[in-house]
Specification:
alpha/beta, 252 residues, single chain
Length: 252
């Protein structure tokens, strides 16, 4: 059985890791490289770094940060934020990133997924989808850090991204992000039925029980979390031991 992955997410602004609720009310939680090294020592399987400001200056700063991360961390890491062209992807991969994540730019220009996957291989491409359950009963993909809703519907857009060459889907529930109220497991299970590529679950982890639920009932291949790790509520080592005791296969 393929081991489930535990992935801390580090939202980066000006080289520092920050965290908020629904992407607002940001708090500084530490140096991005040092925090990543800490998680690697604790047993994280991978890391995700997201440049949440992604201005032109920020992207250049982020490239230098990616080089530092690559030099200092010995586990795979994905980077995202402001990637809108193949050149953007190439710059970050050349700086040492193992995978890149595309989100808003892929919604504007879905061909971007095809182009990056064709050049580098689908194993390098993660399609991130920040979606919100709205009054019409549909999960609408959002852009610009969850601030702008689109007519892209979660399940059809995820399937299109897979068909275009995405190697993984990172789905964040905007309704749950930062709330620590648990993941929408029914939605993740439906997404798993729709896709043939791995799904990373994001948005809502408040406890080890929440993560166990999304990896089993939600059928996610990996769980991504931030707050519970950043604020020391549970260590990755303790989490993995807890998961193994529940019969969930993880790497120790």
């Amino acid at each position: 059985m393929v081991a489930k992955r535990i992935i801390p997410c580090l939202d980066v602004k000006d080289g520092r890791t920050v965290k908020g609720i629904n992407f607002v009310g940001l708090r500084d939680v530490g140096d991005a490289v040092e925090l990543g090294q800490h998680y690697a020592r604790e047993g994280a399987d991978e890391l995700v770094y997201l440049d949440i400001s992604a201005t032109r200056e920020g992207r250049n700063t982020f490239t230098r940060l990616v080089e530092r991360i690559s030099d200092g961390i010995n586990i795979p890491f994905t980077v995202g934020g402001g990637i809108s062209t193949i050149d953007d992807a190439a710059r970050l991969l050349d700086a040492g990133a193992d995978k890149i994540s595309v989100n808003s730019a892929a919604i504007r220009n879905p061909q971007l997924i095809d182009d990056i996957a064709t050049r580098y291989g689908r194993q390098f491409v993660v399609c991130a989808i920040d979606a919100r359950l709205e009054a019409d009963g549909l999960w609408h993909a959002t852009t610009h850090g969850g601030t702008q809703s689109t007519d892209k519907e979660l399940f059809s857009w995820a399937k299109e991204a897979e068909d275009r060459g995405a190697g993984e889907i990172l789905f964040t529930s905007m309704n749950h992000d930062g709330t620590r109220s648990g993941y929408p497991c029914d939605t993740f299970a439906r997404l798993a039925e729709t896709l043939n590529i791995p799904i990373i679950a994001s948005g809502g982890a408040g406890s080890a029980a929440d993560i166990a639920e999304v990896l089993t009932a939600g059928r996610a291949d990996a769980a991504l979390a931030a707050s519970i790790f950043h604020f020391g509520e549970i260590s990755i080592g303790d989490l993995k031991r807890d998961l193994r005791e529940q019969g969930i296969t993880v790497r120790l």
